[in-house]
Amino acid sequence: GLVIFIVIAAIGVGAYVLYKKNHEHKHEPIDSGEVQINFLELGNDRIGDSTFIQVGDVDILIDAGSRKNSAETIEKFMKEKMQDDKLEYVIATHAHEDHIAGFVGTKEYGGIFDHYKVDTLIQFAKTDSTSTLYSDYCEKVNKLKTAGTTVYTADQCVDNPFTLADKITLEVLDQKYYHEKSSTENNYSVCCLLSQGDNHYLFTGDLEKSGEVSLVEIAKNKHKPLPHCELFKGGHHGSETSNNDELLSVITPDTVCICTCCGSTEYTTDPLKVFPAQVVCDRIAKYTKSIYVTG
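-> structure tokens emitted (295 positions)
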């Protein structure tokens, strides 16, 4: 079967890499009606995550960073690709600004939650956030509930995959920080696996090392070990605290796409640690040369 995805590395909605990859590793123009995965740069020079997935006419948005004003960039991109104003699934991985700010948006423009109907929202099971942004996010989520959105926390979805189309599922994977307190908000990240037959695409938000280890161990203990992944969205914007060998050696990814703002010094000026960190590129290079970075 074919594995099809789009990788978008755009300032706003500009240039992009577009290809179809099959088992002969030939590259052809994309076909319509297949699985498309879009990684968005977010209209500013800040680091953040937003992944827009289409499975036929099912629209899925994972996160909406990097800042409130990213909502306009994300919305304009999705508007060009969607057939209606409804997102079937939204996943908010954790309560950091660079993942949820675009859901809230600005007073002038509004957020993703203001512009689209949402059938199902899956969000983090825990948070230690006390920010005004998080309060604003909760207010918007309550409005969605009133409008009919079904809201789950990650722990409520474990072992109950969502069927998106024939032989295509979205599964929330279990990890220990759905149930335990973490010293970092990143570890509360919702982790999910999109499976298209025998092809698997893994998204782990900003999950860090201890969370990645638990992700692997829990799956193994359930006698359902993590599979080889055609695609892995690199964890935590390519930070050295994520993308560890304990996870990479199990999923052995064919392609890694990192949502960041490549080379940004927002968090560090150390050239070896600027996202994506050199050590992360070195770890991934043991499995694939196909590393894509937004920026």
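Residues 199 and 259 are 21 Å apart (CA to CA).
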